[in-house]
Amino acid sequence: MKMTLVLDNIRSTYNVGAILRTADGFGVSQVILSGYTPRVHDKNLLPHLREKLDHEIHKTALGAEDMVDIYSSDDIKSELIKLREQGWQIVGLENNIQNVKLIQSTDPKLTEVLSDKVVLVLGEEVSGIDYSLHDIIDLFIEIPMRGQKESFNVSVAAGIAMYQLMAK
User: Fold this and answer.
1) Domain spanning 2-166: CATH 1.20.1250.20
2) Entry pTM
3) 78: phi then psi, degrees, rounded to nearest 5
4) Beta strands in 27-126 (DSSP E)
5) Which residues make beta-bridge pairs with 7?
6) DSSP character at residue 141
7) Which are the contacts of 152, defined by CB distance < 8 A and separation ≥ 6?
8) 39: which DSSP letter?
């Protein structure tokens, strides 16, 4: 399976770094940063701000920020539409959303509906994937929770989802 990740409105530089490191570990094709997700090596920032963000992301990415194909998108909705037209399936990682059928990431039937080219969309740490993107997403998956908490940290959830999808 080929996988592309979208990090949309991820707030934490540490989450971004951890996701990049995990993405490298799973051989993700590319990572697209959008919304207010902190950018690595962002030439649009003043040098001291770029250095600060790069340093924070590097703390958890440990060099993966230079190994993974990363680019930024100012219009992620159009980007996702383009990817879909190129044969990519758009999969959102969510939990507890209303009016949307969520497929458990552990469901054996997931294999039947997954494409061999998947774009995994990750949204903001608290509120999830921006609602403006919901109509573009072909399939929503969720990681089953057994404890009292309702969700995992986004970087942990990203790792679990990458592992489970790549194993399908």
Assistant:
1) no
2) 0.96
3) -65, -40
4) 30-34, 70-73, 89-93, 102-104, 117-122
5) 33, 122
6) E
7) 143, 145, 160
8) P
